[in-house]
Design brief:
The complex is a heterodimer of chains A (112) and B (109). Chain A has 112 residues and is mainly beta. Chain A contains no helices and eleven strands. Chain A is globular. The model of chain A has no long low-confidence stretch (mean pLDDT 96). Chain B is mainly β and 109 residues long. In chain B, 0% of the residues lie in helices and 58% in strands. In chain B, the strands form two sheets. In chain B, strands 2, 4, 5, 9, 10 and 11 form a six-stranded mixed beta sheet that branches. In chain B, strand 6 and strand 7 form a beta hairpin. Classes of the chains: A mainly beta (112), B mainly beta (109). The interface between A and B is medium-sized, with 22 and 23 residues.
Chain lengths: 112, 109
């Protein structure tokens, strides 16, 4: 089992560019989420999904979009990248909202 | 407002020197408290879930305990491979996880 797979692992963008961070899980988990991790701060929830076709906002959703067309995939889109979005992004999944989440190894994103 | 505070921010131990990490929380309707381990360049790895005050869970040299206001992660006779950042998270009535900033543990041989 691959678990939670995130691509790319590293990315450098220019301000104003858009991109999509990919997240896929092969555990048939219903709940998926995106976090960002910044130095000196805890993981913060960006968006989450409790199942295919259902998404909702977390603590820091501005500047990001998500969709969930399949159980396996949960991509995160940066609409117009800003330096404040420089961060490490983690995708996680769990069988349900109340189960422990499994994390991917992250995408390290730098925006110049 | 749901909140999680971890202390200390960093902890240096000698191999074999036991200690504890603290996670204090305020949350409306605790549904669960989670401990994760995070190695550099990796995603968090699940360790324990605690659901009610008085509950304890153990795994090798780690033991997690829970009260109504805080949780402790006790590390007994640590080894260098226990070096990592340990994250605490709570799940309140809203359902999503609120993470603390973590404790960075270094164990020297």
């Amino acid at each position: 089992n691959a678990g939670v797979t995130q691509t790319p692992k590293f990315q450098v963008l220019k301000t104003g560019q858009s991109m999509t961070l990919q997240c896929a899980q092969d555990m048939n988990h219903e709940y998926m989420s995106w976090y960002r991790q910044d130095p000196g701060m805890g993981l913060r929830l960006i968006h989450y999904s409790v199942g295919a076709g259902i998404t909702d906002q977390g603590e820091v959703p501005n500047g990001y979009n998500v969709s969930r067309s399949t159980t396996e995939d949960f991509p995160l889109r940066l609409l117009s990248a800003a330096p404040s979005q420089t961060s490490v992004y983690f995708c996680a999944s769990s069988r349900t909202l109340n189960q422990p989440q499994h994390f991917g190894d992250g995408t390290r994103l730098s925006i110049l | 407002e749901d909140q999680v505070t971890q202390s200390p921010e960093a902890l240096r131990l000698q191999e074999g020197e036991s200690s504890s990490l603290n996670c204090s929380y305020t949350v409306s309707g605790l549904r669960g408290l989670f401990w994760y381990r995070q190695d550099p360049g990796k995603g968090p790895e699940f360790l324990f879930t605690l659901y009610s005050a008085g509950e304890e869970k153990e795994k090798e040299r780690l033991k997690a305990t829970l009260t109504k206001k805080e949780s402790f992660l006790h590390i007994t006779a640590p080894k260098p491979e226990d070096s990592a950042t340990y994250l605490c998270a709570v799940q309140g009535s809203q359902g999503n996880l609120i993470f603390g900033k973590g404790t960075k543990l270094s164990v020297k041989p």
